[in-house]
Amino acid sequence: MMIDFYCWRSGNNRKIFMMLEEAGLDYTRHIVNLEKQEQKRPEFLAINPNGKVPAIVDQDGLGGKPFRVIESGAILIYLAEKSGTLRPHDPRQWFDVVQWLMWQMGGPGPMFTESHYFHSQKNTPDMAYPAERYDKEAHRLLRVAEKRLGESEYLAADFYSIADIAFWPHCASVERFGASLDAYPNIERWFALVGKRPAVKRAVAIIDKVRIETAA
Ligand SMILES: N[C@@H](CCC(=O)N[C@@H](CS)C(=O)NCC(=O)O)C(=O)O
Question: pTM here?
């Protein structure tokens, strides 16, 4: 039985494509077109009351019954648990992973998005202050990752984990808030390393296909 994956082509969804490909799980993608506001339709709100993608429904979920999961970080944990992929059993290693996953969910996830938005508005009256504030925070988070990836091969530890999956898609578009990975050699090294994984290449190819299918 398959996993129904409600998705779009944007960053938080890319994490789930990467994980589904890594775990080799069967899934069906259901495009929720954000440009048509499909995420706010009642039929999708019945799946995710928060009106955002990604969301999954595992038809063979907990207790063998359909189980719905929302929030990309929770979906990554769920899929790691379900498949046993990228799920270290040593509690110390697992909580290192969970900490860096939560760092991404509360830090770069929302902050890079806001920074991108306010960066694009910075010449509009009253927008200079929020643009500067979010740019500063986004660059600070990049410096945190840069230091971390200078000490450790991957984000959470010396092995690839769902924390890397969570951060990777957001690093592909830092120029949207005026940053460049050229200035962050440790992130650049790690970004290339993760990008070489066959599952990541498959996920990127699928997302490109979705982009073509959904081009207006
Ligand atoms: N915290 C959520 C954020 C999800 C999110 O912001 N999704 C975006 C696409 S990447 C979305 O659905 N935006 C449409 C909207 O906000 O109406 C997660 O990590 O899953």
Answer: 0.97
